[in-house]
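Hey,

Quick one before I head out. I ran the complex with adenosine-5'-diphosphate overnight. Inputs first:
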Amino acid sequence: MHDRCRTLAGAVLRSALVNDLDFDKLLDAMPDAVLVADMESRIVYANASVHTLLGWAPEALIGQSLHAIQPERLHEPHDIGFGRYATTGVRSLFGVPIRLTARRFDGTECDVELNLAEIRDTSGGRLVLGVLRDLGERVELERHLAVLRYLRAITAAAAHLWTRLDPKLVLTTLTDVLVNDFDAALARTWIYERETNLLRLTTSAGLSTRIKGSSRETMDVATHPSKVAAVARTRTPLIRNGLTDAAFDQAWIEREDLKSVACLPLVAGNHLLGVMVGFFREPMRDEVSETIGHLAALGAAALNDARLVGQEREARAVADRARGRFELLARVSERLARSLNLEVVAQDVADALVPDFADWCVVDLISESRSLETMAMAHRISEMADRIGRLRAMYPPSERIPPHAIYRAIDSGRTVCETVNDEELVARAVDDHHLALLREVGIGSHVVVPLIARDRVMGAVSLVRGPERPPFDADEVATAEDLARRTALAADNARLYRSAQQAIALRDRFLAVASHELRTPLTVVRGNWELLGRRLRSMRTASDGQREQIDTSLRRLGQGIEQLRRLVEDLLDVNRLRGGSVELHRTELDVVALIHDTVAGIEDPATRAQVRLTLPEETVLGWWDAARLTQVIHNLVANALKYSPPGTAVEVSLAALDTKVTIRISDSGIGIAADQLDAIFEPFSRAPNASAQHYPGLGLGLAVSREIVTQLGGRIWAESPGEGRGSTFVVELRRGSPA
Ligand code: ADP
């Protein structure tokens, strides 16, 4: 189509020439500017449209050099090209549309398309015909399209920027977009560290990272002479065409053929976050300088969000870690409170720490002879615990040089926290088998915390992580120390408890043997005392006075023997009743009658008169062991009389229900402190007020009574408003059945 038009135009022109039509009018009617120049590059013809396009009056151009309508920078290339054509006739630019910039009359420039053709004047001389077409609108359109393209690239980048808000990723996206979409030859970003006022080179794309290792990898914003530092300092973008400034490495600029640079600060709010730089091989086009600012703004916003997300993530991680530590401490404390057994305590702690806090854990105690006694161990993989056991048995931690971390912790009383690499394992291993075991259990880092209680180092807790896990950080070491403190305290309590238990067991064994051994001679003494009494009383030779003296001595002796007998019986009872070796003989009996009889058994009439009974008239039957129940009532009444002032009343009452009876024995005596109400039922336990006021007693009666009542299926307890305010002992018994 285009070619057909051209042919047509040629035909019209030819006919115009042939028919001698007004050729000038024809050319003036054309919308394009038409110029004809001779071989000296002088304008010999210009049509009317020259004025519309270039602002020149056509006649004013006649005789002028073509330079008149060219920007100065194109003069030299024009002269060279035109000169070559004039002398050689080589028409390299003819026949193809050329895009170039023309200069208007007023000095402004415009984009034009130039088509060249050679024509001849009437004498056959060569002339050059140029047709200039205004490209202003098209160029503008193209520019808009380019802007659109860049904006689209930026929008696409935005989607990417916010997918994973990580600073490094944001900056990588920026450099990639600069290179791939903005055609940068080299793109770089620096991140700004506010604390140090440093810019740190973070991402680079395009040309080789030649600058790596140079002074530009980190730059002090305050002092560095580079443009990048200046942009950060002033927070003002630098967009420059022509890179002749000495601040740029000229050799490099020339070698890489770089023409322009855009260096923009990444700023969000008032915060400088970094700097983004692009070097280009083209002069900076308007569309790039217009849109690159958007990219920087977007990058800065994403970077800021990434920073905030990072801060939040960090804060959440800190809170999570604190919560984890708190939960761990609570878990361990709870376990520590569960038992007073040393091994159980240690194993509970080890189990609570593995596998979350450590991959494996060993709790050791140190003996007087400085050997280690392993109290507990736990491993993430349960079978591995045996492996640790084997390792410890075959290759016990050595205290020789270099001493094992456990000995170092125990001897210094301080935590040992170390990372351990394979070389150190090799150095530590005694032989190949030892090394294999060490590698197998997995040692990458350990924390060994001494167990200290009452200023004494008892042992150590060793916490170990495998090489694949990060070593313990400062917070975790503090947690381990806290745990060790609690463990040491619990272990110390367990140890004290164990020695107290051992002492009690020893005492009980001794008393069991002693009371048993005392019983036989006591029976002999008692028998002989009775015999002696009978014989002396029948002696006729004694006077009345002598007889009276003998009676008094015999009575006192009898009282002493009875006291001793009760004591031995009580001792035996405590042990037998607790050991479960006493069988109760239940029969149906009337507890009202039993109480009457027990009180009636009090020998001294005055003492007996102190006891006031409030008992039902009728019988109250139940299935109990008569002798044992009598023993309980007797103990309680005797105590009430013993621990209250002479002559004061002791009340004994009985309340009966269908299924149970409640017996209460109250006095107005020395009373019982609240914290002693339960303790006095322990064997050999006496309240401080009883001992302080020198009441005789061993603290066995109540222990025996509780054992009996418990075995009868009942309960016994003491009540008192406090010391000096009297006491009440309550016995509650189920009436029961023959079974
Ligand atoms: P004992 O009387 O031989 O000390 P018990 O086992 O009978 O042994 O009593 C234990 C302790 O209970 C006494 O030492 C005393 O402190 C306290 N106690 C028992 N009965 C009374 C009471 N009626 N009033 C005050 N304290 C009492």
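Residues 474-538 form the longest helix (65 residues).

Talk tomorrow,
K.
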